[in-house]
Design brief:
It contains 9 helices and 12 strands. It has 310 residues and is α/β, with parallel strands linked by helices. The chain folds into 2 domains: 107 residues, NAD(P)-binding Rossmann-like Domain (Rossmann fold), CATH 3.40.50; 180 residues, Rossmann fold (3-Layer(aba) Sandwich), CATH 3.40.50.720. 36% of the residues are buried. The chain binds glyoxylic acid.
């Protein structure tokens, strides 16, 4: 029985492999691409593995993603269809997303971009400041990360509303559901936070039509996956003033190409896909816990529903 570790990031190999070896024993952890005995592999821990890394592993029982989002693994068909795929759920990763969302909700609400540009022109220009309770922050994506972020924003005194396609129990967060409520949801958002997974249904969801339904001058935070916000439509909405400012951590193409107009746009804040990272120190426990469960014949937790795509 061995665990295969496969990642294209050197930093993962440096941190995860010693941690897994310490927890499981040195011979139990095999690092791709060197797989001396493919039959020995029962589980794999992966981040953007190579195309055939997970093929021809006859005793593979489950694959654990190092990322919360599994769109690349599904779109590339990198995990054989009959093998359960587990997404990363880790309290520190959730905390990272909560921090990122709180930071940028406050940044937009307290008009930091406007004060930065006034400072650049040495302009002393106090702006009217609404109260938090007069502002609504809307959340798209109320999973592990979205719900935690929505609750943290609500604690600051903002109005918070979520949107889900089908009705859901969201304990404490007001939620609109169903296609007929979509325009009403968007029209209520002073700040829209997109934490949706990337699936065939969410791809291109925030296009010109959706952005036009936001209140004039609304702000956007996009921190789950690129491709959900349609970048040319976003630029057009910023140009017309329909959108005030966009904080973007994820992009249609990553790394964001040097010549992208998003980099230097005065009303866009770019961060390089760092909103919520997986820390081996804590995330390893989520992998080990599932490994123990599987070996004890118990059901795995956080298995991806491939039909839904997350
Ligand atoms: C990061 O993007 C993740 O999917 O965890």
């Amino acid at each position: 029985m061995a665990i295969l570790f496969a990642s294209t990031r050197d930093e993962h190999i440096r941190t995860w492999v010693p941690a897994l070896r310490q927890a499981l024993g040195p011979r139990e952890v095999v690092v791709a691409p060197d797989i001396p005995d493919r039959r020995a592999i029962t589980h794999a821990v992966v981040w953007k593995p190579g195309r055939d890394t997970l093929a021809n592993l006859p005793n593979l029982r489950a694959v654990f993603s190092l990322g919360a989002g599994v769109d690349d693994l599904l779109a590339g068909e990198l995990v054989p269809n009959h093998i359960p795929l587990v997404r990363m759920v880790d309290p520190e990763l959730t905390r990272g997303m909560v921090e990122y969302v709180l930071l940028h909700v406050l940044y937009l609400y307290r008009q930091v971009p406007q004060y930065r540009s006034a400072q650049a022109g040495a302009k002393w220009r106090p702006l009217a400041q609404p109260r938090a309770c007069e502002q609504t922050v809307g959340f798209l994506g109320l999973g592990e990360l979205g719900l935690a972020a929505a609750r943290a924003v609500a604690k600051l005194g903002f109005g918070v509303v979520g949107f889900t396609r089908t009705p859901r129990q969201t304990n404490g967060i007001a939620c609109l559901s169903g296609a007929d409520k979509w325009p009403r949801f968007l029209a209520s958002c002073d700040i829209l936070v997109c934490l949706l997974p990337k699936t065939p249904t969410t791809l291109g969801l925030l296009d010109a039509t959706a952005l036009a339904m936001l209140p004039h001058g609304a702000n956007l935070i996009s921190a789950s996956r690129g491709g959900i916000v349609v970048e040319p439509d976003l630029l057009a909405a910023l140009a017309s003033g329909q959108l005030g400012h966009a904080v973007l951590d994820v992009f249609e193409r990553e790394p964001l190409p040097e010549d992208s107009p998003l980099w230097l746009h005065p009303n866009i804040t770019v961060t390089p896909h760092i909103a919520a990272v997986t820390y081996p120190a804590t995330a390893i426990e989520s992998v080990l816990e599932n490994l123990r469960r599987d070996r004890a014949g118990k059901p795995l937790r956080h298995v991806v529903d491939r039909a839904r795509g997350y």
